[in-house]
Amino acid sequence: MSRHPRRCALGRALALSVLLVATASPSTASMTLTFLDVGQGDATLVAADGHYVLIDGGRGREDAIAPLRGKGVQALDLMVATHAHADHIGGLVSVLEEKSVDTLWYSGDEHSTQTFEAFLDAALGSGVRYVEPTRGHSRTFGGLEVTTLHPGEQTSGSHLHDRNLVIRLDYGACSAIITGDIEGSGERAILRAGVNVSADVLELGHHGSRSSTTTEWFEAVDPDYAVVQYAEGNPYGHPHGEVLDRIERMGAEMLGTGAHGTIRMRCSGGEWRVHTEVSGSVVAGDHEPGTDREPEDGAGAGCIDLNQAPAETLEQIIHIGPTRAEDVIDGRPWSSVSELEAIDGLGPARVRDIQEQDDACVR
Questions:
Q1: Strand ranges (DSSP E) for 213-270?
Q2: What end-to-end distance do the CA atoms of the chain give, in Å?
Q3: Residues whose CB falls within 8 Å of the CB of residue 39, separated by 6 or more in sequence, listed in order
Q4: Residues whose CB is less than 8 angstroms from the CB of residue 60 and which lie 6 or more positions away in sequence, other chains included
Q5: Selecting from 1.10.287.110, 3.40.190.10, 3.40.50.720, 3.60.15.10, what CATH number does the domain 5-276 have?
Q6: CA 94, 95, 100, 103 torsion: positive or negative?
Q7: What CATH number should be reported for the domain whose range is 304-361?
Q8: What's the predicted TM-score (pTM) here?
Q9: Which run of H or of E encompasses 12?
Q10: Rounded CA gap, 327 and 314, in Å?
Q11: Could you report the per-residue pLDDT of 90-147, keeping only the tens digit for each?
């Protein structure tokens, strides 16, 4: 991951555009958070006073656009891309192509994947206003205030998670924090900054990974509800057991898309009402890989790099024969091993086998 001159071109091009947004129909005096069930990814729709904010959009083209169509949402006041991994921005492409989006918040970090290039092209083509917000930057939509908690102006790092956007939502006495894939170092940076992090609802960072939701962070937020976005049976073991144990000890109500499907939370006057698509309980994942963090600039020394290895080397990976080796080459660049599910015949179970074999990697 690097920061390239093209990022500056993106900012200049988008800063010059002005988009007229259709007025949404009025709503009652409440804020509604809808955590969309997009599998192993993130997508959260915020609605308040006829205004709409979309934070991430899942991986697939229909992950975010289909619910927006279903709800009759024609325009977004704000789109937030927390970071450039495909399971967060993949679904934003079709939204930018189909819907009116007034403003896009993104860190400005570059990523050398086809998904990021598609996201970049869609943003440039849409004429959206472009902003790279840092800590303290905020916008108000009716009674809804949207504030950036992370990154700070001086925040840097070698991984996309390091400058992942963390967003605070305030609507009267109602509050929530949406974290994307923030990790412990980012949580500590927010706490050191001394900003207000107390909130009713906390989305757990990085799909409930042990890399995030540190004790000091969770205690500072002190939420009534903890929400985790993940796919049941995902190959990363999300959410991790120690994170769930920590939440249980602290007494927050646990909600998760892998157990409950799409989660709708409506708040008015500080009172929350929760509706889930299905009944269930959030339990720890059943697989514990060595790491659940996607490498950016390298990986283990002996691994087979999906972006560099020749066909005959790729064939050494379980479930990858001559035909699929060519499919891997044609699909380059890859941002994670999990993206191999896009190849015909490689479903979640076979990709899980590949990850457990631990031979494949992305450099």
A1: 225-228, 253-256, 263-268
A2: 10
A3: 58, 59, 60, 63, 231, 234
A4: 38, 39, 90, 91
A5: 3.60.15.10
A6: negative
A7: 1.10.150.320
A8: 0.76
A9: helix 5-15
A10: 10
A11: 999 999 999 999 999 999 999 888 899 999 999 999 999 999 999 999 999 999 999 9
